[in-house]
Amino acid sequence: MKSSVVKRSVVIGGHKTSISLEDAFWSHLKDIALAQRATLSALVAKIDATREHNNLSSAVRLFVLEHCSREPSSIGR
After folding, report:
1. Which of 4, 33, 49, 64 has the largest CB neighbor count within 10 A?
2. Nearest-10 Cα torsion for 13, 15, 59, 36
3. Does residue 69 contact residue 76 with C-beta atoms inside 8 Å?
4. Which pLDDT tens digit goes with each residue over 41-74?
């Protein structure tokens, strides 16, 4: 099964930026934001502030993967 990449804009520090992620990553990212009682933009801003990689989309994917490895019940909902 092929997952489509979806490009969305988020606001970080008052500036719009685009992030391209597969549907599954968007879904998990939204769930994480909801669980943390944060907006999607606030969560992405947090990821952006602490990332070690140049590419924000890659940093978001790694964040989601790390979160899912710590919270195995969130995988395969």
Report:
1. 64
2. 50
3. no
4. 999 999 999 998 789 999 999 999 999 888 766 5
